[in-house]
Design goal:
It is built from eleven helices and two strands. The protein is an all-alpha fold.
């Protein structure tokens, strides 16, 4: 098996997360805690919180999604950006960890009761890069019997995440999912426009138009 950037991220994240399951200190040191950033300058928490997860279910779900979509997105980045494509992909993932939490930080910068962890925001960026590249690929949720084109799935995902985020009825940071997803789309669209001749956005529009015209 090729040791891709995606696989390296999964291995590192899994090892750190499993270590955190039995160590409160690891969780406390790495979790995204806004007051620690505001008052102590611990900016690295934007990144390290993506290495830890609440439990095995949380970890498996994120890493499964990253593997399923990341393998294809990483290969596409290499095709689009050439020999540095895998490093561009890594930069996109790492920077997504930061960007997806900026709205959360602005809202909770002095909230001593708020904490967040998990790689969901960065994984959302990868998933939406996949949707941008392969908008007609049918996607669905685990245990959900219906598969729909990716661009429709992505739209519904953003709408549902926005509704759930406003309700604040669970402990999931839906804001990170939304901003991570949007960042992935913007990163790939802008990056390919300036550093590649591959027409990512044009191809997306053409594919979606062709699908709509088939009805």
């Amino acid at each position: 098996m090729e040791l891709s950037i995606t696989l390296i991220i999964i291995i590192v994240t899994t090892l750190v997360s499993i270590s955190g399951f039995s160590s409160h200190k690891i969780i406390d040191d790495l979790i995204f805690y806004p007051p620690a950033v505001t008052q102590q300058g611990q900016w690295w928490r934007f990144l390290t919180c993506g290495l830890i997860h609440a439990d095995f279910g949380h970890l498996i779900l994120n890493m499964y999604a990253l593997y399923i979509f990341g393998v294809h997105v990483e290969r596409a980045f290499i095709s689009i950006f050439g020999r540095y494509g895998n490093f561009v992909y890594l930069f996109m993932y790492v920077s997504a960890l930061i960007v997806c939490l900026l709205p959360t930080y602005r809202k909770h910068r002095n909230n001593y009761y708020y904490r967040s962890l998990g790689a969901s925001g960065a994984v959302s960026a990868v998933v939406f890069c996949f949707i941008l590249l392969f908008p007609l690929q049918k996607l669905g949720l685990i245990f959900f019997p219906f598969m729909i084109p990716g661009f429709i799935f992505g739209t519904l995902y953003l709408i549902v995440s926005s509704i759930l985020g406003r309700r604040s009825a669970d402990n999931i940071n839906h804001s990170a999912h939304i901003w991570g997803a949007l960042y992935g789309v913007l990163f790939l669209t802008i990056g390919s426009n300036f550093f590649s001749s591959y027409p990512v956005l044009q191809n997306f529009v053409q594919d979606v138009r062709g699908w709509l015209a088939s009805f």
